[in-house]
Amino acid sequence: MSKVYAHRDLKICSKDCLCLFVCPTGATNNETGQIDASKCIGCGACAAACPAKAITLIPRKMPPQQKKTEEVIEALNKIVQNKILQLWQLNDLLQKSTSLEERKLWKALKHSNMVVLEDIMREKGYMLPESKNTHDFLESLKSEKDIDQKVVEQLLQSLEVNE
Ligand code: SF4
Ligand code: SF4
């Protein structure tokens, strides 16, 4: 099996279908819009052909996350807390504002805050698929009645802890 496989970002994809023509295995021709990782041989032809740069080759096995010192985690936690606080403030401003231009600005700031927040959480190691944090989070979902337990089990089996 190839060390990497192709992933299509549907938010960027302009649906001109060039990747369908160049893929030697038919992995890109999928009704879900996602590239079929089980058919992908990691040749990269689709990524090279994609005019929207919507395709990325990602490793099948993620490297272990880097160890963080307590000081770094503490600093990241503080940034996360500040970002969450800013999100509350922006929500408040959005609700109170009557100007369309102002509302656009608050929404854009909210979006940018969410992106930064997501990046920081990833940096902390909470969103790396093969981290212990992710594994513990999935384990904690086992007691949630509203969550499809088959999916939780599949994820737990497919995401090997690599720390
Ligand atoms: S080549 Fe790129 S933009 Fe075109 S369908 Fe494929 S992923 Fe989308
Ligand atoms: S990397 Fe190669 S095999 Fe995989 S989807 Fe792209 S073109 Fe197809």
Q: What distinguishing features does this structure have?
A:
single chain; 163 residues; mainly alpha; two-stranded antiparallel ribbon; globular; binds iron/sulfur cluster
In words, what does this structure look like?
There is one protein chain. The protein has 163 residues and is mostly helical. It folds into three domains: 4-59, Alpha-Beta Plaits (2-Layer Sandwich), CATH 3.30.70; 70-124; 129-163, no CATH class. 50% of the residues lie in helices and 6% in strands. The protein has six helices and two strands; from the N terminus they run βααβαααα. Strands 1-2 form a two-stranded antiparallel ribbon. It is globular, with a radius of gyration of 20 Å. The two termini are 23 Å apart. One iron/sulfur cluster (SF4) binds at residues 6, 22-25, 27-28, 35, 40-46.
